């Protein structure tokens, strides 16, 4: 499953990265303008598709952790 085409349809998901943390450890980092955008993403199509396939994709259920960015440097 590729989440990128689904996430591209979410106007409040301003950044989305699929990341590799180790040989078999992966993650997703995404950013939103506000809490409403975050909640829309977490209750949207990509989250539903991920949870639907979690049993076949992961050895244990995915962990979703919310973080707040305290400082950033962005292009532009």
Can you give a write-up of this model?
There is one protein chain. The protein has 76 residues and is α+β, with helices and mostly antiparallel strands. Helix content is 33%, strand content 20%. The chain is built from three helices and two strands, in the order αββαα. A hairpin with a 2-residue loop joins β1 (15-22) and β2 (25-31). The N and C termini lie far apart (32 Å).
In short:
The chain is α+β, with helices and mostly antiparallel strands. It contains 3 helices and 2 strands, in the order αββαα. The protein is globular and about 40 Å long.
DSSP summary, beta strand count:
2
Helical run tally: 3
What share of the residues does DSSP label as strand, in percent?
A: 15-25%
- Specify the overall morphology: globular
* Strand arrangement, major sheet: 1-2
Low-confidence stretches: none
Report the mean per-residue pLDDT as an integer.
Answer: 89
Provide the gyration radius in Å: 13 Å
Percent helix, as a range, is 25-40%
Structural class: alpha+beta
* Head-to-tail CA distance between termini: 32 Å
Largest sheet: 2 strands, antiparallel
- Topology as a string of helices (H) and strands (E): HEEHH
């Amino acid at each position: 499953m590729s989440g990128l085409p689904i996430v591209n349809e979410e106007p409040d998901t301003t950044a989305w990265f699929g990341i590799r943390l180790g040989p078999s450890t992966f993650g997703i980092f995404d950013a939103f303008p506000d809490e409403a955008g975050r909640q829309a993403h977490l209750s949207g199509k990509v989250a539903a598709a991920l949870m639907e396939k979690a049993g076949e994709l992961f050895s244990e259920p995915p962990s979703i952790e919310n973080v707040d960015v305290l400082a950033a440097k962005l292009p532009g």
